[in-house]
Design a protein that fits this description.
Blueprint (H helix, E strand, L loop, with lengths): L3 H10 L8 E12 L14 E17 L2 E14 L7 E13 L8 E13 L6 E15 L2 E12 L20 E13 L5 E17 L11 E4 L11 E19 L4 E14 L3 E15 L1
Length: about 290
């Protein structure tokens, strides 16, 4: 994995000759998550810094006016300072179709996309595929005002045989998960060209939460496994599979550094309601550099 990150960063910084129907992009971000483990009790919560990097290569087809098809390949990695069990790299592909419903810049656009990513973690029991199918609606109301909404079905797979049951009678299948997401966003372009985005997301389904043994999650969990490697100080942690609904609000500021480079600064606040009346919260702060080649 240590060899993978320099390769990905070199792809991000290199200059690439782009053909007319090819798209190349990459991003590198630094962030902080103040509740990595999705824990409820303060004694179980730990925070960490992370670095992510992604590279995308796509080819676009324009079969007719107002219609486009994009086929893309993806490489990615996420590295944590202390939560080594969550370090991962991934690769995958996606296909999307977009159609404009009418004429002119203000005509709404509808799209569908399918994406699959193979993810490999330092904690092997988390290894598996992440599949996402989305329906997207976009609409520009003014030259500076754009909106979008999406509905997504997500399926995460993992090999339950790699997970070690917390007790001989416990179900250790905690990382095979299904979720449904709804998100809506509004973008506003300022006079200086920077863009302010507000985004709301509602996610309903299954989550995994890692805590010390004896957590309040125990009575409502559908599975429980050992998770001693999630962080450097988690010598006796366990991970629970729990049903939960998560709401998040994100505010993002994007400004151009050049024709093909931009910088984002964002803050996201999450509030999750799990079974049994349990609630956990978390905040994620991120600075991201974006580049198109």
């Amino acid at each position: 994995m240590k060899k993978f990150l320099p390769l990905l960063l070199s792809l991000f910084t290199c200059s690439t000759q782009v053909s007319a129907n090819m798209e190349y992009s990459g991003d590198v971000s630094l962030g902080h998550n103040n509740n990595i483990s999705n824990a409820v009790s303060e004694s179980d919560i730990f925070e960490d810094q992370f670095l992510t990097a992604n590279f995308n290569a796509g080819k676009m087809w324009l079969p007719a006016v107002g219609k486009s098809i994009v086929l893309s390949g993806h490489l990615g990695t996420e590295q944590f300072q202390d939560s080594e069990g969550l370090n991962r790299y991934s690769y995958g592909a996606s296909v999307s179709y977009t159609q404009r419903l009418g004429l002119g810049a203000y005509a709404p656009r509808v799209g569908v996309s399918l994406r699959g990513d193979k993810r490999n973690f330092d904690s092997d029991m988390r290894d598996g595929w992440l599949y996402r199918a989305s329906l997207i609606l976009e609409k520009r109301f003014l030259p500076e005002l754009h909106s979008s909404a999406s509905l997504t079905r997500e399926i995460r797979t993992a090999d339950e045989n790699k997970a070690i049951p917390y007790t001989p009678f416990a179900d250790s299948d905690v990382f095979n998960q299904k979720n449904t997401e709804f998100s809506a966003s509004l973008d506003y372009t300022l006079e200086n060209g920077s863009v302010i985005t507000g985004r709301y997301l509602y996610r309903d389904g299954e989550i995994d939460a890692s805590t010390n043994p004896g957590s309040e999650f125990f009575l409502v969990s559908r599975g429980i496994a050992q998770d001693y490697k999630i962080c450097n100080t988690c010598g006796n942690y366990v991970v629970y599979l729990v049903n939960a609904s998560v709401q998040s609000i994100m505010l993002d500021w994007n400004f151009a550094l050049g024709r093909d480079t931009s910088l984002n600064a964002s803050i996201e606040r999450r509030i999750a309601d799990a079974e049994g009346g349990l609630t956990y919260t978390g905040s994620i702060y991120r600075v991201q550099l974006n580049r198109r080649f």
